[in-house]
Amino acid sequence: IKRIGVLTGGGDAPGLNAVIRAVVKTAIREYGLSVVGFLNGFGGLIKNQARELSEKDVVGILPRGGTILGTTNRDNPFHYPVIKGGKKEFVDVSDRIFENVSIHGVDALVIIGGDGSLAIAKELYAKGLPVVGVPKTIDNDLLATDQTFGFDTALTTATEALDKLHTTAESHHRVMVLEVMGRYAGWIALAAGVAGGADVILIPEIPYDIKKVIDQINQREMQGKKFSIVVVAEGARPVGGEMVVHKRVEDSFDPIRLGGIGNVVSQQVEEATGKETRVTVLGHLQRGGSPSAYDRILATRYGTGAVRLLMEKRFGEMVCLQGATISSVPLEEAAGKIRQVPLNSDLLLSARQLGICLGD
Ligand code: F6P
């Protein structure tokens, strides 16, 4: 292997640049390789948008959010939209990826992405492209790794938000509802709720009963605790209800939220308790900004680990964290598979034992 490529797919997550930097530095310094950055995710690779990456290009990017590789997006080369006869159709354009990789003389590719991008990486590998994956998402919902980079920063942002909501909740004797991201998993809500001292945490893994939430708030009131903090994962849903997190439209996410579960919970709580209730939807603040120290380190370990994997020709694998150690697993163990919070997780147990209401 003489020359490698790197690309970032899917949504952004704090730490993308830290991975890119680690890949570039390790490839050039340790192995004497050259590196091409494919721009704008898989869409850019399909359109042959690329730039050479030298050590100079990665100076100062470690603390920067976003990605230096243009934009990230959710384009899928196996299901790519084209307009035919005025109508949108989806076609397989993955051959273009092979052509463009070959035009740039790239021997192997590092693909940084979440479940969707890793599923594409797996398909490209099955078709003959030498790839390795790096797990990324603030949601922390990837199977086969104990943690994704980006999660710790999102968690820190959500915890800081809860600290701020606490003081204003206390000042007005209000109920504050914070809706956090996480898609189909409750990792951010659970961890931030525990770190931020929430009274109620609602996660997709445990369908909630709104009566339990109301009871918790009323009980606190009777104990003289005049305010309450509720954390709601965007994917939380009532018993027998549906998730309103995001509606998949064709192959992309529809950013229009169908009501927002935080609003629903907030209105129900205000009506039932008579307490003034306010909702905050934290949204994309969780994806932006500088990565935490933990994420910078994890992303760096993933980046260096990915280049080691390539050099060992362990294509079709993904770097992962197992306990305290960087390891690797076949892409098929991670690609397209979601990891929710296990119901027997000790953090859930701790939350219960602290008296936090989980809605069940
Ligand atoms: O997967 C990361 C994530 O931020 C989710 O938490 C959230 O549901 C989704 O992406 C939002 O997607 P978009 O940025 O396309 O609105």
Automatic annotation (TrEMBL):
Its EC number is 2.7.1.11. One of its GO terms (cellular component) is 6-phosphofructokinase complex. Substrate binds at T137, I138, D139, R174, M181, G182, R183, E234, R278, H284, L285, Q286, R287. The active site is at D139 (proton acceptor). The record marks G116 as: Important for substrate specificity. Transmembrane segments: none annotated. Mg(2+) binds at D115. Residues 3-310 form the Phosphofructokinase domain. GO terms for biological process: canonical glycolysis; fructose 1,6-bisphosphate metabolic process; fructose 6-phosphate metabolic process. Keywords: ATP-binding, Cytoplasm, Glycolysis, Kinase, Magnesium, Metal-binding, Nucleotide-binding, Transferase. The keyword Hydrolase does not apply. Catalyzes the phosphorylation of D-fructose 6-phosphate to fructose 1,6-bisphosphate by ATP, the first committing step of glycolysis. This is ATP-dependent 6-phosphofructokinase.
